[in-house]
Amino acid sequence: MSSVAKKIQEQQIQEQQKSVQTVIVRKAKISFGEMVLICVLAIFIAFLGTRVITNQAEIYKTNKSIQMTNRSIDEQTRLNVDLKEQVSELSTYERIWKKAADLGLMLNENNVKVVQE
After folding, report:
1. pLDDT category of residue 24 using cuts at 50, 70 and 90
2. Which residues have CB under 8 Å from 100's CB, separation 6+?
C-alpha cells in the first residue's frame, strides 16, 4: 500500500470513530401509568407512616395510663400497710387496759366473757 492510500484509510477510520463517539442522549420520559404507580406508592408510604405514628401514640397513652394506675395502687398499698400498723398499735392489750383505767372502768371477772377469734 502506498502512503497516500494509508493516509486516506486512517482518515476514514478517524471519521468513523468521531461519528461513533457522538451518541445522542435522550431523556427517558415517564409514562402516565408509571406516574400513577409512583403516586400510589408515595400515598401508600405516607399512609403507613401516619398509621405507625398513630399506633405508637396510642401505645404511649396506654402505657402512661398503666403506669398511673400502678402508682396509685402502690400508694394505696402503702396507706393500707400504715393503717394496719396503726390498728395493731392501738389495739394492744396494755393500751386498752390503760384507757379503761383512765376512764374509771374496773375489771369484774364475773362479767368477762371470752370470745374466740
Report:
1. low
2. 107
